[in-house]
Amino acid sequence: WLYDMQDSLISYGFATLLHSDNPNCDPHLAAQKFKTNPWMQWLLEDAELIRYGAKCIPTGGLYSQPKLYHDGALLIGDSAGMCNAENLAGIHMAIKTGMLAAETIVDAIAKDDFSANTLGGYAERYRESWAYQEHRASRNFAPSVARGLTFFGLNQPFRMITGGRGLIDNMTVHAGHTHMKKLANLPKSKREKEPFEFDGKTTFDKEHLVGFSGTHHEADQPPHLKVADTNLCATTCTEEYGNPCENFCP
After folding, report:
1. Do 116 and 71 meet the contact criterion of CB atoms below 8 Å apart?
2. Rounded to an integer, what distance in angstroms lies between the CA atom of residue 125 and that of residue 73?
3. Last residue of a domain, which of 177, 196, 216?
4. I want to staple 141 with a disulfide (CB 3.0 to 4.6 A). Which of 30, 86, 98, 179 is the partner?
């Protein structure tokens, strides 16, 4: 996307699939390379970087949605997979589910009961709302894309005339990481990343951009991600995949 905003501000970015078969897939690098386009260079001439960020979009659809209620907890917005993958839109659904959750919490306060039995009313409210109907209509979009462009092209017209169902409903999909191939199984031209020089004016490396991401934490704060066997990072992962986590993390 490229949004022209007030005060001469521009919002630029794009969405990319994370289940690439190439371990060298680098969304950050792709975004920087796009800015070398002559038209983008003209647009960004003398521009100043204000903010940088990245996030995962929960595009799995209705069939990948987790349970929405638990004892003492409700899931709304992205944490509940509330995203219309077809339109890459989720803010409106996050607001709506937040309102439905608030109504449910009011009931729980009145009953002094925050068990899943009472909070389950949230799921009922959701299923009766337009948010659910919109989510249901786009339920097979992402699984259709995951099957390849040929199937997607054939399936899309049927989705449009069947209320989102398409040729197959609730298609089987595979976890994103299972699509990744070993470097040795890729064409030689794709086994190594192409060198790229960041100019520091319109294109920037990750180390520079993290300072514009609004990230704040203690230097020695324990990481929230745990690697079960760190030896794999230095052996199998390096040898067979080239440490893809250095690439797909933007």
Report:
1. yes
2. 16
3. 177
4. 86
